[in-house]
Structure formats: structure tokens, C-alpha cells
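Why does residue order matter? Because the sequence determines the fold. Keep that principle in mind as you read this record.
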Amino acid sequence: MPHVLLIEDDTSVRDGMELVLRRHGYDVSVAGAGEEALPLLDGLTGKPVELVVLDLMLPGMDGFDVCRAIRSRTTIPVIMLTARGDDQDIVTGLEAGADDYVVKPATARVLEARIRAALRRAEPAPGSAPGEQHGGLVIDRSGLTVTKLGTLVPLPPMELRLLLELSAAPGRVFSREQLLTSVWDLDYLGDSRLVDAAVRRLRTKIEDLPGTPRYIQTVRGFGYRFGPL
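Structure:
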């Protein structure tokens, strides 16, 4: 059973979500605050956590700070829950490292579907020959690793899948809708901000100058492409 860490301070909401997730076969740990959750994430209580569902409005550390702390420890998927669907909160959450977000009140069916999709994205993807060289960037599709000038670049599963998708066809322009489908397992009703935020985060890790990217280029009015180099 996948192990999900649910971080939610509202007891009634937390209990309801935990019950639903357990009914769907998940092993669930719960926490009401970020300070309580991080020791669970560090694996001090047994089975490693495979995905985090994170409320934005928390006592003490808010969801943004908790997400950054999670990202400093691990690359596992993070789904952020927010009662505020305004652009700034969502973009800030994505920039903090969240892989997806769900606006409350969300149905149990929607949340569970997003969890399943995030866990699928975290699974190893089939690859071709290892060691693709793109300038100073080496992409190992079999080992699912990326190195830049000989240094390993740790990437969360979603960012790795995005890079693998783009680099598989250098020069091809991918629309945001195509990337939502192939990387996020979401249809055209998904939010393109997921793509834009992931591209920005990925650029900070693989580009020498993220503001003038060499690898992941924006094609205005269309989407993104890898190269040409």
C-alpha cells in the first residue's frame, strides 16, 4: 500500500480524508502541523512516505515553508491543498516545489485521482539507451538520472518526467496541453500553470542562465521545446 502523509490542521477534514484514503487502500500518516509532519517524513516512524498531501493554511510553519522543507529532504510528490484559488497562492505553492494542487472543497474522488496520477508519475519510466549527451547535460534514461558537468542533479519525479519528455524530441514544440497530458496525466482541463512553474524550477537546476535558457526554450504562443543546442 502506498504510504501517504496527510498534513491538515482541521481535525474533521483530516479525519474524513484519512478515512477515504484508507478505504482506497493507502497507508496513511497524519499531522496537524508542519513541525509535527517533518519527523514522519524523515522516516523516524517506519515505512517511508511516498507522497504528501499538504494543506496551505497551517499553524506555525505555513504550507509554503513546509513544502520547501520537504523539497530540501526528498523528491517525493507533493500535492498542495488550498482553500484560496487565487493565482498568487497557487503559483507560490508551485514555485515552492509542489507537484500539483487541489482547491478546497475538493471531493474525495478528485483528491484520490490526483494522488493516483502523482504516484504513477513517480514510477520509473521506460527508457532508451543511457547517457544522452546534450552539451554539459547528460540524461540517463535507464538509470533515471541527470548530471550537469559531472554533478548529479536531483530532480523530483514530475520535473524528471518533464525533462525526459522534452529531450526525447529535440527541436519539437510541445504545447502546454500536450505536456499536461503526457507528464501530468491530466487532460486539457488541467491548469497550464503546473507546466510553467515546473519549467521555471527545472531551468534553475539545469541551465547556466535560467533567464536565457539553452536547454528548455519558450516558443511564444505555442509552448516549449528542448534545444536546439
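The domain at 3-122 is CATH 3.40.50.2300 (Rossmann fold).
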